[in-house]
Write the structure tokens for this entry.
Amino acid sequence: MKIEILGTGCPKCRKLNELAEEAINELGVSAEIIKVTDINKIIDYGVMVTPALVIDGDVKVAGKIPEKKEIMVWIEEKK
Amino acid sequence: MLLDILNGGLLALKEYVALHVLTCLIPAFLLAGGIIAFTSRDTILKYLGAKAKNIISFPLAAISSIFIAVCSCTVIPVSAGIYRKGGAIAPAFILLWVAPASNLLAVIYTGNIIGYDMAVARIITAFVTAFVMGTVMYLSFRKEEAERMVEGEEGGNNDKKIIAGKDIILLLLILFSLLSPNYLITKGPYLHKVYVFAISISITFLYAYFVIKKDRISNWLKETWWFVKLIFPLLLMGVFIVGVIGKILPQQWIEHWLGGNSLLSSFLATLIGAVSYFATMTEAPFVDTLMKLGMGKGPALALLLSGPGMSLPNMLAIIKVFGPKKASVYIVTMISLATVSGWFWGNYIF
């Protein structure tokens, strides 16, 4: 599974990154977390308001930090 | 000597914390958090994208700027997004220019620290120059744009409302708590401001408690807390540095180069603003200090306009996203606009 964190390095993006890592560890799934910081690439996903979370190419949330529970549900759905 | 300098910094910090945190910063952060939590920026952007091709886009972009980038650090991805998703070049660059220059938090803060005439000047100038900026960008890149727009997609799918009516009232109440202590009570002891603030903020929270859903309130407070964590340390550091700078810089030097309202001093002030990095709102105490040391009102306005939106790292980011040609036209236009605005207000209006 590929989890991408879109954001230009803002504190909220780092927080989202932490939450995603925690979610993966708690679920025990193997997933790769990639930070996407290039603005042009972020926009290619159709995201304008960062931070955003992308799982296997699907934009799950943009513009706010989701709850860890929500992230876990999205990961479960993709498994 | 060194002790003296450090003392200057600490003194500035003390004065600042005593006078601004409760009645100015707390409601300002609550307002910023509220704007983020209650307005749908996606919807505003979609709307802007759809209307980007006609003349309405100019004022629309200028007005949306207030709500989109509460913190100037987020404006580059947003404006790049509008542009790359098929929006026209003018609204994208209007946003890039106006959002930091007329940022709601920073403008109110400017009013509280420097004076309301400066805050009004800042807003009016940002809006008027927005049209110049849009026109310049449009005319400079007309040909390129005509080719690019063919492939641009329509983005007018508005399923969500920008903001709900109940939330608007809450935002207005917060705005009232922010403005009332500082504008209703202009004389007398500071404690009077605190009383006014206590009353207005209590009304705000009572309204929120009875009218707004619990999870939305918690979302609002969470966003507010983010701003506090993000901006407050930067602001304190900024105020300290400003206090130190005020001690180091010789007054004659400032009077000579930044005093009066000549075109040159306005230009120099613009340059200082354009190259150095100001975290949101720190430009206000900086300008305030320089003004006490003899900076003219015109140059002060120029620095307030160019300071928050532009810095060397920001320039590099803009070059990377929009390409060197558009970035240089933008930067030159921005510096000219800020310089001329400072000179104009300084000589004819203030």
User: Anything to note?
Assistant: The longest helix of chain B spans residues 2-38. Confidence is low (pLDDT under 50) at residues 152-157 of chain B. The interface with chain A takes residues 36, 41-42, 45, 73-74, 76-78, 80-82, 84-85, 226, 229-230, 317, 320-321 of chain B (CB under 8 Å).
